[in-house]
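Anyone able to model this chain together with fe (iii) ion?
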Amino acid sequence: MGATKRCGLFGGTFDPIHSGHVALIRALMRELSLDEVVLMPTAQPPHKLKNGMAAAEHRLQMCRLATADMAGVQVSDWELRQGGVSFTVDTLAHLTAERPDTQWYLFVGADMFLSIDTWFRFADIAAMAVLCAVPRGDADAADLRRKAASLTARGARCVVADMTAVDVSSTDLRECIRNGKGTDGLLPPAVEAYIMENRLYTDESGSPATDEQITAILRRRLKPKRFDHSLAVAEEAVRLATRYGADVQKARTAGLLHDVMKNTPPADQLQVLDNYGIAMSEVERGAEKLYHAMSGAAFAEHVLGITDRDILNAVRYHTTARAGMSLLEQVLYLADFTSADRDYDDVDVMRRLVDVSMEDAMAYALAYTIKDLVKKKKPIHPDTVAAFNEVTMKGDGENGNCTR
Ligand code: DGI
Ligand code: FE
Ligand code: FE
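re: yes, here you go
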């Protein structure tokens, strides 16, 4: 059966993907008349992450951003999903099995090409793909052609690209970012923005994101209405914190952050929770609306470097509430009900109550939520019940009644 499609395979750490990679893809697609290119970010040994490597999900996302507007280019997470470092021969075997009607072209960097015959099961690799070497300079090109001739004599199919790779290195770029130097247009703009917003490759990536950084991230991750809601909740949380003596700065940060994952697809949120080993109860797994509080707290802790437990818990419990909430947790929970953008039946009652008594406002908000869930025949989270019982029994003891 003759191959009908010509497809490139470009593997690498892409840490980060840069304009040199993008130029190479474009040039090879044209030169070899490829229909498609599969970009395959490779897994990193876990210990390498500690040396400033970006997490796999970031490298994958940067590849997607860099090639979003390139027809025929797809990003594959196959190697990342395999667990552990993959051999090229296995990746090619997988792709060949998946698409038997495709002729594969394996992109190989100049230095790698010179020793490619030492790769694990080289003969099988050569049988499955045309090997494409990309020179970095004239001297390089001569070496590569000599190597290609000797490999061809042994039955391999080789191409030495007519282009010269743009001399950009991910290592240099990481260094520039770490030192706060510009990256000179060597990164696709969307990738550069992603790196800044996720604070990749900076020494301070361990220090908590500032409110300005959080706001930039929100603008990118949230739909306009949800973004406005987040700013409104932050403002209301500051007002309530001031009134009731909670930490004003923490209230602002928690308010900004609380819905950071709200517009992220549920499947991606589950992935985030899975990545950080966060277990879910059956009720939690069954209610997609509850995901964003849990995944938001995980994102705040692991990606944004927020270490303050009170802020993280405020985000974590802003949807369900729980028994024994701290002042800050209650401030955020209530601010989410009374922010300026809110518009529901009882919002006036809530706004009046929240200025009179935090406890009464909590009782009202919890009762409102539970009634609403019952009406919609949705399961009620045990934490919501516990919070409701707590505040109701407290009211009981003081007032001798529980009518509300
Ligand atoms: O994210 P927001 O819209 O600003 O507000 P939120 O985080 O309080 O989410 C409200 C949604 O969460 C609303 O659709 C009801 C749902 N929800 C809240 N508590 C529970 C719940 N859903 C279930 N199934 N069980 C709960 O206990
Ligand atoms: Fe929310
Ligand atoms: Fe909210």
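Residues 259, 262, 287, 289-290, 293, 318-320, 336, 369, 373, 378-381, 384 surround 2'-deoxyguanosine-5'-diphosphate (ligand 1) (CB under 6 Å).
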